[in-house]
Design brief:
The protein is an alpha/beta fold. It contains 19 helices and 7 strands. It has a 5-stranded mixed beta sheet, sandwiched between helices. The longest helix has about 50 residues.
Length: about 525
């Protein structure tokens, strides 16, 4: 809430009194340059006594309202099931345990309970299959017009092979989709352990608690009642927590930006000297120098950003916009700090000076880490080493790990020029990127059970790729500076994207579906299913 007072919760309660912070900023001396980090905010003075008194009065009034609310209503009548029907076509239930447990369950209205089991496939539309079974074998489960489930009916359906659970209800027993999910969720842990009978019992008992539940017994009622008591306090706490979180994020981003800015400032003269001696006849040297021409302009802009952030008041630091400004500064500072390191490496490596070997190690670090990470990639994707894409990755790893020492030897004795070394590195990383991409596609196809799930996993992989290209996340080198638009698929990106894709698929599988498929026609009975 931009412009809202920032009042610590302890002040509201009267536990403590606000006191101005004391302490000066600091001055870092690095390489003869001073970097001012005095960011002391100007705190707004805000009265708190009135707010506390107002909060107390509102809380007292809300408490009286909730006390009246809790007294409303009378106990609901308990009814045993009107009938219990078990149709165990999958042969997984212990009826001698199931039926008595259901008969001992109390409903608020006389209800016919049906427990149906069927064997099917994971990608089946379970709702459609249950409806088709009812139409063919139990028309009494349907309303007179066959467009809804019969009144007084509650069906729990389980597919042990396709791993589905469904709940279906007559119009006079229907509940919300969230409530249906609650009924299904009550059984999922047991069903996942193949405890079919106990899972069915838990689903029926959860349904008995929820179906025709009086409004005053609904959890939302108590939540709203609690909010009635704590509404002002809750809003204040939420706002203060959000503001506190934003101030912390602002400070963290600013600290990261300050550190990078100090590094750039300290090395300005050295960076300029390095840039002057980069050989322009080198294709890579020319590209790095193009980036250096932007360096001074970007540094001047960065200094302006830093100066503006010094004057940002506390109320702005507490907002999302304030955090965005600090993060933009940090991202720009880190990017510039990485660029001066690349300029130093380019000068050293392309001129083959005494520290060229260290610069070459910096250029090959990403490749070496990706090669070392292939085993983890195969483990994450549960790949068979003999599968084509996995075998290609392993073979390529062995080939390149054996070649790396010979590349270094060639650079050392002059049989390979620096530009040739970087060309070889570029082509190698591009080829490895292609192999990772091919393996990702193969792993997605193997894991996903539908086109929709494949698309979910590809979206997560794409998001991981985009995250890895952010300036603060990306490691820079002569190669990535020369070709900033080129993306190299890494082992870390593969692992992150694939794991996130698996999680998205699992989440989608567990969410409820309420459609009845193409054969359902105009059927609109209350019901849904989900996976376990």
């Amino acid at each position: 809430m931009t412009g809202s007072p920032t009042v610590p919760i302890a002040w509201i309660s009267g536990a403590v009194s606000p006191s101005p912070s004391r302490g000066g900023g600091t001055e870092h001396r690095r390489g003869g340059h001073r970097v001012n980090t005095d960011l002391r905010p100007v705190r707004d003075r805000e009265p708190t006594t009135t707010a506390g008194a107002r909060l107390a009065r509102l809380l007292a009034a809300a408490a009286l309202a909730v006390a009246a609310l809790v007294g409303v209503g009378s106990p609901a009548q308990a009814n045993p099931p009107k009938d219990v029907v078990v149709t165990d076509t999958a042969g997984i239930l212990d009826e001698s345990k199931l039926v008595p447990a259901i008969k001992d369950t109390s409903f608020r209205s006389p209800t016919t309970v049906v427990v149906l089991t069927q064997r099917g496939a994971k990608d089946d539309i379970f709702n459609e299959r249950v409806l088709a079974y009812a139409r063919d074998h139990h028309p009494e489960w349907l309303s007179a017009d066959r467009q809804k489930w019969a009144d007084g009916l509650f069906i729990v359906a389980i597919d042990p092979d396709g791993r589905h659970i469904g709940t279906y209800l007559g119009e006079d027993r229907k509940v919300s989709m969230d409530a249906q999910s609650d009924i299904q969720d009550a059984a999922k842990d047991l069903l996942a352990d193949a405890q079919w009978t106990d899972g069915a019992i838990d689903a029926v008992q959860a349904g008995a608690r929820i179906i025709n539940r009086p409004w005053y017994l609904h959890p939302v009622t108590f939540v709203l009642g609690g909010l009635g008591v704590l509404v002002v306090g809750a809003v204040v706490v939420l706002v203060l927590n959000e503001q506190r979180k934003n101030r912390r994020s602002f400070a963290e981003a600013l600290a990261q930006g300050d550190e990078a800015y100090a590094n750039v400032t300290m090395d300005l003269d050295i960076t300029e000297l390095n840039a002057r001696t980069i050989p322009t006849e080198s294709a890579y040297g020319a590209r790095v120098l193009e980036r250096y021409r932007e360096f001074r302009t970007r540094y001047t802009q960065l200094t302006g950003q830093r100066r503006d952030l010094e004057t940002v008041p506390t109320r702005v630091r507490s907002t999302v916009e304030g955090v965005r400004q600090a993060e933009a500064f940090a991202e720009a500072a880190v990017s510039l700090d990485k660029l001066d390191d690349v300029i130093a490496d380019a000068n050293s490596f392309l001129n083959h000076d005494s520290s060229w070997d260290e610069a070459w190690e910096n250029q090959t670090r990403d490749l070496r880490e990706d090669l070392d990470g292939i085993d983890e990639v195969l483990k994450t994707s549960a790949a068979d080493p003999n599968e084509a894409t996995a075998a290609s990755l392993l073979s390529f790893r062995d080939e390149i790990q054996a070649a790396l020492p010979s590349w270094r030897a060639g650079l050392a004795d002059g049989s390979m020029t620096p530009d040739e070394g970087l060309d070889t590195l570029r082509d190698t990383r591009a080829r490895l990127s292609e192999l990772f991409q091919a393996h990702a596609e193969a792993a997605i196809t193997a894991h996903a059970s539908s086109t929709a799930e494949e698309e979910l996993m590809r979206q997560e992989l794409k998001q991981a790729q985009e995250e890895s290209t952010r300036p603060r996340a990306r490691r820079t080198s002569i190669l990535t500076t020369s070709y900033p638009g080129v993306f190299y698929f890494s082992a870390a990106t593969m692992n992150t994207g694939y794991t996130s894709g698996q999680a998205s698929v699992a989440s989608a599988q567990s969410s409820s579906s309420s459609g009845y498929g193409s054969s359902g026609g105009s059927f609109s009975g209350s019901g849904s299913s989900s996976s376990f």
